[in-house]
Amino acid sequence: MKGNKKINLQEKELYKLFNEIKFEESELNNMEEEVDIIQKERIKKNLNNKIKRKNRSNKLKYTSIAAAITLVFSIGIVTASPTFAKNIPVLNSIMQTLNNKYGNRGDYAKYSEIINKSVSNNGITITINEVIADDSKLVISYTLKTNKKIKDLEVFGLGGFLKIDGKTFSSMGTSFGQYIDDYTYIGSEEIHTSIPEDKKFNIDVNITEVSDIKGKWNFAFSASKEEISRESTVFRPNQKLDLPDSNVAIDKVVFSPIDTSIFITGYGKNKNIKAGPNGGMFDYNYWIAFDDTGVELIPKGIGGGECDFNKNTFSSEMQYEKSKSIPKYLTIIPCKITPSGGGGVKRDENGKEMPITIQTKKPKEIGKTIDGVYPIELSQGKMGKLIINDIKTENNKTIVKYTAKGMAPYFQAQDLLIKDDKGKCIEIKDYIRRADDQNPNEFTKIFEALDPNKKYTIFTNNFDNVEFREDLKFKIELNK
What we know:
This protein is α+β, with helices and mostly antiparallel strands.
């Protein structure tokens, strides 16, 4: 997506949907709040890093003045805070704050490295705030400040401007963020790409465009994966799978302070598959995972992966939220999901746009009128059902509390929406939340406040576009 100048409407609206969460700037700027243990560790670590960097870079500063003056005019001004203390914004991690908002419970603040470098050009100041690195990805948080209102910053991404140790690699991933006001946007982007084996490596982010505004915002910094690697637990099951369309090897399972990942490699059985958006080499690429108590792991995002259609091989990473403890085994149910809609454009070597069409299948919508009588039961076909226990509107938001029963409760619970009598979907204000660890199948979802004078329908679907293959279920034993 980031390589193209345009994205299709569905993708664009999805990004906007993910960014409808209310956000208070005071959450980032309130310096009076109590400093917990993790924050104290972060202060100590980043103070040490800052002192070491300053001692090492004194000579460079004195010998690079002429070059720095040139850079001011050619690529923008690299800003610095006036005092040493202000160089350490460790009390309010943007990366942690955003991930918390979207339900990700990894220890981002504890393991992130403070970068806090800013470049201003053409009325836009970009700040790289923090970075985390592990063996498969980078997570980078950033701030965009503009001197005029700019729309659609939620589709801005860093991945297309990234170099690691001077080299450009293909990348993919996920990003989300929030407008603080009309002129300020904060984001956190997870970029899956080729990460060097060395514990520490150099990163260049040379941005040339922000929302159709051309400019030069060049950043250079380093990242270390040493600390997060030391705190991660790695299992190598050496397990082989025979799936309908492919043969798969489970190479490793990693429990890290920020997430849980299953890394696989394989090859497709159909030698006639050609490169394209409709897949065919590894279609059972959505794995629903359960721990040894039967609780579903929360899926985190796309993860990384690549296909070589010449060799008919692929690699992939299945990503889940951080686990509170390491289970004895994981139970996996492979699924094949046919998108309910989509498409887009791509550019050929000459810059000509070409349409992209994908195979789609729209599931049947199942809904009921919200009449104030609970529970409301919504069938989800073969998957199970949702039970709406309560809907309450207060403080300019509508809170829905519900239970998911069936084959994969969290997977099912994600698909719950409300629409008005004209068919317009109500905006989602907060990400789906589990009630607690003791009630993993109880959920809360927050929407824009409903008008008491209007009629609404709450709905889900029957998952006709999902092949939930319990017959392919298998266990991954987690033995050292």
